[in-house]
Amino acid sequence: MSSETSVAGCFSMSPFGKFYWTAGKAADPHSQSEFVWKVGAQDYPMAFYKWHVGEPSYDGQCVHMWEIDSYSWNDASCTSDFCSVCEVGK
Ligand SMILES: [Ca+2]
């Protein structure tokens, strides 16, 4: 698969617009009661939240953004094929 094909696939549309994975994950994969930023092996507390109305619904361990609602957040299964938001060092 070419990188162009891969990018086109990850930007596929749904009724909720484009989806983007963040580094947000459940701190405890068994309870999913708290979400943190996972950067490498480190967990960082979330000092800012932008959950979509009714989220988190605790139906997944990973956090993605929904384009359709000003990039609000949703917890979902980590196995979905979405694009990722990455930080690139200078
Ligand atoms: Ca959810």
What can you tell me about this protein's structure?
The protein is mainly beta and 90 residues long. It has one domain: Mannose-Binding Protein A, Chain A, CATH 3.10.100.10. It has one helix and six strands. Strands 1, 2, 3, 4, 5 and 6 form a six-stranded mixed sheet that branches. The longest helix has 8 residues, at 3-10. It is globular and about 35 Å long. Calcium ion binds at residues 55-57, 59-60, 74-76.
Task: Draw up the topology in text.
Elements: H1 3-10, E1 19-26, E2 35-39, E3 42-45, E4 62-66, E5 72-76, E6 83-84
Parallel strand pairs: 1-6
Antiparallel strand pairs: 1-2, 1-4, 2-3, 4-5
Bound molecules: calcium ion.
Features:
disordered N terminus; globular; binds calcium ion; 90 residues; 1 helix; mainly beta; 32% strand; Mannose-Binding Protein A, Chain A
Summarize the structure.
This protein has 1 helix and 6 strands. It is mainly β and 90 residues long. Strands 1, 2, 3, 4, 5 and 6 form a 6-stranded mixed sheet that branches.
**CATH fold title:** Mannose-Binding Protein A, Chain A
The average pLDDT is 83
The tally of beta strands, per DSSP, is 6
Low-confidence stretches: 1-6
CATH superfamily descriptor:
Mannose-Binding Protein A, subunit A
Strand percentage lies at 25-35%
Radius of gyration: 14 Å
Count of helix runs: 1
Ligands, ions, cofactors: calcium ion
Question: What profile does the largest beta sheet have?
Answer: 6 strands, mixed
